[in-house]
Design brief:
NADH Oxidase, 18 helices, four-stranded antiparallel sheet, 379 residues, 2 domains
């Protein structure tokens, strides 16, 4: 089989497994990506994601990751949501979960399909293959742009003229000399809808993301208390954030019927905050089995839920937060304190603080009580 025929077979096989598009890039096609990554790391925009710095050399050049690779096939899977998927944002007593996390963990779903495609290609054309779905130091978005699948928009995510912004990316590294596709050019123009939509101003400039202000980072990757000045902007987003994706004008050209390719869990569309806040570790693991949410862990997740409760302005949720003041996790207790500082009257908060501060042995939780007292004094 010629390299051209192998590439044609790959595209047909990928379409048969539900992928929206396939493109091929040379391993040396992202020469500028390493420099952009170095600037982001120097500016501290990666936050606590130290692995980005530790693997920077391999990310910047796929040939460092696998010197034998002759081509990188990039595959895009459209997970675009159905109409009405963002109703939770207007229901403050409910949690808003990022669209991708309402399905079974995409790492598992797509990697199985990639292995079938790669195995079929090896049996027909020979060569060696390695498949990756966000599980290795691969800069998927620059490679996808180099492979012609789309371009990195001002929100730094990949945008496709045919499939919009709702894309999972996966890669097949191969020793086969597959012919590369032409890179896509930028079609954002003067539009800045994604930048203006960010609730926490996480974009210091177009095409640059400061993860330290990004709700997806804060609710998923960040291990400690969420910075106080960013909590209000989070609203009821308890796992990830889709605002910059959902406003992209190119989504209107996305393929129809895409939701049928992945089955979303209806119970994750707008789950009640009152239920989620009460999950212990065992219940959390059982409830989110097979979901990417499980990897974040119970304490971080309940922290997020309590921040949302604090933003709800719903006094009926105060008892839910109060129950978490005795939680074994300082992270959860601190978030509960903040929620109550916004839901309780000043007199009640001050009385509870006096008792709590006498027995609280965690410095960060104590700081939350003191900050709440200061907040009420300012009012």
């Amino acid at each position: 089989m010629t390299p051209e025929a192998a590439a044609d077979w790959l595209r047909a096989a990928a379409a048969g497994h539900g992928f929206a598009a396939v493109g091929i890039a040379r391993p040396d096609a992202i020469v500028d990506a390493g420099a952009r990554l170095a600037i982001a790391l120097s500016d501290g925009h990666h936050g606590s994601m130290d692995w980005l710095a530790e693997t920077a050399a391999r990310r910047a050049d796929p040939r460092v990751l696998w010197p034998e690779a002759q081509a990188v096939a990039m595959l895009a899977f459209n997970y675009g949501p159905r109409e009405g998927a963002f109703a939770a944002l207007s229901q403050p007593d409910r949690g808003a979960i990022s669209v991708y996390a309402r399905h079974r963990d995409y790492h598992d779903v797509l990697k199985g399909r990639l292995k079938l495609i790669a195995g079929g290609l090896v049996s027909r054309a020979g060569g060696d293959m390695k498949v990756f779905v966000d599980t290795a130091p691969v800069m998927e978005k620059p490679l996808a742009a180099a492979a012609g699948l789309g371009w990195q928009g001002k929100h730094t995510n990949l945008v496709s003229r045919r499939a919009g912004s709702w894309l999972f990316l996966a890669s097949i590294f191969t020793t086969l000399p597959l012919p590369p596709d032409e890179a896509e050019i930028d079609h954002c123009g003067s539009c800045r809808a994604c930048l203006d939509a960010c609730p926490t101003n996480a974009f210091p400039a177009p095409y640059r993301l400061d993860a330290r202000r990004c709700i997806s980072y804060l609710t998923i990757e960040h291990a400690g208390p969420i910075p106080r000045d960013l909590r209000a902007g989070i609203g009821n987003r308890i796992y990830g954030c889709d605002d910059c994706l959902m406003v992209c004008p190119w989504n209107k050209f996305a393929e129809q019927g895409r939701e049928a390719k992945l089955s979303a869990r209806a119970d994750l569309d707008a789950p009640p905050l009152s239920v989620l806040a009460g999950l212990d570790d065992a219940a959390f693991r059982a409830h989110f089995a097979g979901s990417p949410i499980k990897r974040t862990g119970r304490d971080r997740f309940v922290r997020n839920v309590l921040v949302a409760i604090g933003n709800s302005a719903d006094a009926a949720l105060a008892p839910v937060a109060e129950a978490r003041l005795a939680d074994a996790s300082p992270l959860v207790r601190g978030a509960a304190v903040w929620a109550l500082s916004r839901l309780w009257p000043a007199e009640r908060f001050e009385g509870a603080a006096a008792t709590a501060l006498a027995g609280e042995d965690d410095a960060e939780v104590a700081a939350e009580w003191r900050a709440g007292l200061g907040q009420h004094e300012e009012v």
